[in-house]
């Protein structure tokens, strides 16, 4: 796939983003840890707060990363940003307003894989990125699309009951787009985005089939 920018320009966007928003990366990371805390120490308001934080992640990526930074080298980022903002709105509508998103870590395959994906996004992904030579500030920190989408896939797997189809579409679309771009640019760690998407999709389909029987 022919891209309208080079790997150097792409990494420069990461650098500009990371330097401009610091120390917001730390806050985003702490919010993700707070989600995990709420999954372990369930509160009556946990599901609404988790949904609100996930909504914030996606709106943040849509506005701050895509529209303010990525669009400087790729005008398609305005479209991507709109999709991400829309997805953040879906989390608000389904999880905060309608209260239809209920998260819990259960001791089964879904809970185990979901937790692995969350840990991968927060710890293993940046470790792999560093080992491949993508050192801060030119590294994809948490709060950027690929690691945050992997984290979101982990959250999908610990949803109770059937999945509202609306929350699945945009992350899977981005997984395909993000992987294609990463493959073209040599951002090897982002191969994990497609792997996470495939694993999540397979488990979601299995769960839907079991709940329908």
Tell me about this structure:
The protein is an all-alpha fold. The chain has helices at residues 7-21, 24-40, 46-69, 77-97, 109-131, 145-157, 166-185, 191-212. The chain has one domain (7-212). It contains 8 helices and no strands. It is globular. It starts with 6 loop residues before the first helix and ends with a helix. The model has no long low-confidence stretch (mean pLDDT 93).
* First-residue to last-residue Cα separation: 42 Å
Please report the total strand number as a whole number.
Answer: 0
**How many discrete domains?**
1
User: What's the tally of helices?
Assistant: 8
- What pattern of helices and strands is seen along the backbone? HHHHHHHH
> From the structure provided, what is the oligomeric state, counting identical versus distinct chains?
single chain
Low-confidence parts lasting 5 or more residues at pLDDT below 50? none
Which terms would index this structure?
globular; mainly alpha; single chain; 213 residues
Summary of the model, kept short:
By secondary structure, the protein is an all-alpha fold. It contains eight helices and no strands.
Q: How is the secondary structure organized here?
A:
Blueprint: H1 7-21, H2 24-40, H3 46-69, H4 77-97, H5 109-131, H6 145-157, H7 166-185, H8 191-212
